[in-house]
Give the backbone structure.
Amino acid sequence: MSIKRNLPTSVMSGFALSAVFVLTLLNILLQNIPAQINTAGYELLKLNADDGVANAVTTVVVYFRGFDTLGEIAVLFIASLGIGHMLHLSDKCDLKEHSNFMLYTASKLLFPIITLFGVYVMVYGHLSPGGGFQGGVIIASGMLLLLISHKEFEVPHSLIVTLETLAGVSYVLIGLIALVVLDVFLGNFLPHDVSEMGLLLSGGVIPIIYIIVGIKVGSEMSSIVQNLIKRDANV
Amino acid sequence: MFEFLNEAESIKIIVTVGSMALFFVGLFGLLTQKHLIKIFMSIAIMEVSLFLLFIGLTFNKDFTAPILGDGHTAFVAMNDPIPHAMILTAIVIGMAVLALGVSFTIEYYKLTGKTKIDEMTEMRH
């Protein structure tokens, strides 16, 4: 009888993975890869001073990599579409009962504050840490709070579809307008003076695009959460 | 006594060792667990370890976040914004893939009543 028969699979893979782990670490550390990391972003920070907003991460996400962000929210849209298609087909059912009194009462108080905070993070995404993705997820977490505390609450399906469609279409439209005006897809065709950097109304098209991204992410996340929760009660 | 831990090289080595350890914890779970939800959790752990590696390797403790304000008036002595933007993308995509996988699992359980990969025999005949 071989050793393989005697030992469970988990022990075998544990030994094998430990060996691979040690080899990988030796490879990384002996070649001193961490010291060789050469960041290209410092050049990009110099570019950002002439042509960007106060938050350099926002400039990279929305302006320098605006086309990738368009593809990214397309991936999110397809995932949301798949989840909605898979879980929406059978009968939805509400939660069996209301949650406990504390959560039920506190959710009414907390929901407006959470939504306000999400909108703040979204609108100030070009000035402070945060942005459309983060703000959208915060708003969706407020929806999650209402969904687990109120048994009959439902995010209106037509509202989600309308917001999602409008946001997606206006993102592409802004890119196309810039293509007509500046010959650059998703270029910054609105006035963006460097001296105004740091003000709320600055950066031209960048904060508008990030708010659009926030609306789209918020509605898609809300629909994902709703589909998972409403279905979960049924299983 | 532990001042050497504050040096840039030590921080990078600690980040590398820690995130690779987390990566292999996730890979171990991926290889040994049979339950579908646990497999998706392992994939999520592997993703998080790569986020830590990306951010940690480009982190410089003498620099600030790449945001103007709080007294900063120029984009000097700031951390590289590209890994932050890349990881922001990766987090969103990872969340979408995880949610889709979990909903596949829910639907599969609803249809067949099975949750383990070694019980999946529907395609054998």
User: Anything to note?
Assistant: Chain A touches chain B through 60 residues (CB under 8 Å). Chain A has a mean pLDDT of 85. Residues 55-232 of chain A form one domain. DSSP finds ten helices and no strands in chain A.
